[in-house]
Amino acid sequence: MSNFRLLLAEAALKGVTEARARIFVHVLNPTGQPSGIKILRKKLIGEKVAAWYTHMISRGMILLSWLVKKKRLSKLEMQKRRGKAAPKKGQGRRALKRNK
């Protein structure tokens, strides 16, 4: 009688795990042998992504570079107003020492 219960419990557990794998789109691997699923689930990198999303990446890069440039210029403008910006080329401390 106990063997029957063990078989029944094992079958129920197996059915539950199979159902869970189907619902949550998991891959069942009861033997535990290595498979290529882990590699296939990784995100695409490098040239594959660039080839797939070329128009989106180039537009995003242009927008990003424009934002970085705008931020840098606004920071420089704030420093100039406070008198903390770098001097023009040839107007620094070393050039002032030479003129004395």
Automatic annotation (TrEMBL):
Keywords noted in UniProt: Membrane, Mitochondrion, Ribonucleoprotein, Ribosomal protein, Transmembrane, Transmembrane helix
Domain of life of the native organism: Eukaryota
Cellular compartments per GO CC: mitochondrion; ribonucleoprotein complex; ribosome
Subcellular location: Mitochondrion
Residue intervals passing through the bilayer: 50-68
Biased composition (Basic residues): 81-100
Region named Disordered: 77-100
Recorded family membership: Belongs to the mitochondrion-specific ribosomal protein mS33 family.
UniProt xrefs under PANTHER family: MITOCHONDRIAL RIBOSOMAL PROTEIN S33, SMALL RIBOSOMAL SUBUNIT PROTEIN MS33
Protein name listed in UniProt: Small ribosomal subunit protein mS33
Species of the source: Papaver somniferum (Opium poppy)
